[in-house]
Amino acid sequence: MMHPRVQIGLVATLLIAFGIGLTLYKATRLGLPLLPGESREVWTIESKISFKPSSGPVDIELKLPQSLGGWVTLEEHFASSGFGFSVEDVGSGRSAARWTRQSLDHPTTLYYKIQAYRANEDALPEYPTRVDSPPRLKADQLAAMERLVEVLKERSTGPESLVKLMIQQLNRDDPDPDAEFLMGSYSGTRDSLMLDVMSFAEIPAHLVRGVQLQDGRRRQQLSSLLEIYDGDRWLVFNPDTGSMGLPDDFYVWQRGPGAVLRVVGARDSRLEFALVNNRLPAKTVVSMEQQSENFALLDFSIYALPVEQQGIFKGLLLIPVAAFVVVVLRLLVGIKTSGTFMPVLIALAFLQTTLWVGLAIFLVIVSVGLWIRSWLSHLNLLLVARVSAVVIVVILLMAAMAVLSYRLGLDQALTVTFFPIIILAWTVERMSILWEEEGGREVLMQGGGSLIVAVLAYLVMSIGVVAHLTFNFPELLLSLLGLVLLLGKYTGYRLSELYRFRELVNQK
Amino acid sequence: MIKLISPRTLRKLGILGMNRRNVGYIGRYNPRKNFRLVDNKLFTKTAALDLGIPTPELYGVIDHQFQVKRMVAELLDRESFVMKPVQGSGGKGILVIVGRQGNDFLKPSGAVVGIDGLQRHASNILAGLHSLGGRNDQAMIEALLDFDPMMAQYSHEGVPDIRVIVFRGVPVMAMIRCATHASDGKANLHQGAVGVGIDIGSGASVAAVQNGKLVTRHPDTGASFEKLKLPHWQKILELASGCADMCGLGYLGADIVLDRQHGPMLLELNARPGLSIQVANQEGLIKRLQIANEIADQAADAAERISMARHEFNVANMVPLAEQAAALS
């Protein structure tokens, strides 16, 4: 039987060496970069088409994106188990994916995944200018439309200002009577109303459909921009805010009329997008694609997972780093925290809320919670009931805070929901017991200690290199495990003890 | 600039740190399954009674909420008693009653507690307010010790208890913890209680420390620590050493009180005794623990262990810490 110390040393060394070795191998042989350095934002966009089949054959057609505005598609992937599948040319440079099946008896989801990055910030290319013929309207609608267009023309200097004015009008809380009537009586959406206004004003216009890129979103819907021709160039407008120009975070799926998704033989169809953003050099992704057949290793990397799970792991893989920070601060520095891993959870919440907002929210909820808890302690309740009461109080506080701050225009405070409720409630409970037994000083020591550890863990987790390394080289966590095992056997002094025993030498 | 002591000096002085205590002593010599016996004061008491180790008399135990009214009513027959949580830690939730005033009870500070106050305290204990991890608990009611008057002068409103660290059955280091006004009657050193280091060899005081600083007199009672010499010292050491055999923990803190009639009595045991005893004694634990290890290997029985410890750890035979430090620099 080996001495436990030797055993742990051996296991830890092996783990550390294995983690670093595999990382170096991936870095040198497979060309995965160790530093995020000259990275590109590579977006993985996963479209999910879900539907419930009705009787008879099912025919789904999804128009594929055109890669406009400088976007380059690195990889395409279709998932179509049990369906006939083909990619067809549908004219004018567009292609569409088509899934067909004779019959189907259960709700189904089809997937189409692309990885794309924006190579350069191109504007949208030329597009044939054509004014749509004005739609046929009922007499009262027609009159209102003509009056609205006349007013818009009167108040504007050209197509650009006219569009801005129109967007303003149609988004106002109290639009003028004509606009209000049109919106109320119109069968189509607001976007199609805008297109009709454009055709009455004889301005060439169409919608640009695409995906708003937000990292970690799972159920993003298609959104639209309004594009008009002002006489010599095409201009893009946001139909909600009226701001001009193609936003950086907008991935163009389709420009011009026509449906993106066509479904025959099914109902309740939905098109949703899951998005994940990785900072990687584009060439790495390309080389990964080329090499993935040669290196089975990459097939077992995080990249092999569906996008949704990738997004979750991006966060999960950071937790060991935070735990390591806690181990170091508690064993080497000797900071007192309330609960071993409460700081990790608080730090995770900080990642969502940003640091200062998170700190403010935490302090407000815990101090108000403590105040209410001190009243509860007079009621002499049984423990489980008391903790549940604190949970309810904490949730009410969070709701009150969200509503209040929203009314005051402080949108940041809405991120309050990212705080783990049960953890907050337990924190309040522990702190209040600590207060009753050990006094306010100990509460400040432990509460402050927890916050310091949480902030440090947050700062480490938000370093770009750390996120890059844990996501691309998860094997480094083995090395981290080795370090934690070694720290578990550390018998030296803590920094706090150098302070605690400081008087011992100088006395007598 | 905060003044720190260098880790090198600490190591040379043989000061035991938290990590080393946890890994090298508690983790190594205290089997997890034996913690139960010391974390539960009723188990400790039962085991002590079996071995003939004296403990304060048990008046009663409240297991369930419905018993609270009846048990508290029975207390009307008692002049004085102590109510405490069975699984409490660090002296939390201990209610001491020293006298009566009609149907009401008197605390040491002179404050009056009614029947309903006692009931509320009992309910809080049952709900786990004072217990490790907030578990449901039992409340126990014990006889109030009649402090040895020699001890009473060293404590302000609190219980002056003797803490002895026992390693593998060998008493290694001892101190008295004296509650002060600043510590609010509690015997916790980090809350401002005075720690008085006691010579294992003679039972006399070595040094007294409050908040890390040396003191010579109790800040509230004015009693001088220099003349302090514990009576029944051999009996105290025998009692502490006996506890180690009883609970099967290699590294143990025994809390002992001196009763006027019964002499030393076991109050409670601690499987994770703190490190401030080193400050109170102005002496590191590591060297003593190494010597104690040798004693434990050589000695045939408890009596021999104690006599060897009394010889080895006699302050007269040891180099004071200040001189060690001076030699280092």
From TrEMBL, chain A:
Segments traversing the membrane: 6-25, 315-333, 345-371, 383-406, 412-428, 449-470, 476-493
Residues annotated as domain 7 transmembrane helices usually fused to an inactive transglutaminase: 259-504
Keywords per UniProt: Membrane, Transmembrane, Transmembrane helix
Pfam families: 7TM_transglut (PF14402), Transglut_i_TM (PF14400)
Location of the Inactive transglutaminase fused to 7 transmembrane helices domain: 25-184
Protein name: Inactive transglutaminase family protein
Lineage: Bacteria, Pseudomonadati, Pseudomonadota, Gammaproteobacteria, Cellvibrionales
Automatic annotation (TrEMBL), chain B:
GO biological process, one term: SOS response
Domain annotation ATP-grasp: ranges: 45-300
InterPro entries registered for this protein in UniProt: ATP-grasp, RimK-rel_E_lig, RimK-rel_E_lig_ATP-grasp
Keyword match Manganese: yes
Record's keyword annotation contains Manganese: yes
GO molecular function: ATP binding; metal ion binding; ribosomal S6-glutamic acid ligase activity
NCBIfam families: rimK_rel_E_lig
Protein name: Alpha-L-glutamate ligase-like protein
Organism field: Sediminihaliea albiluteola
Taxonomic lineage: Bacteria, Pseudomonadati, Pseudomonadota, Gammaproteobacteria, Cellvibrionales
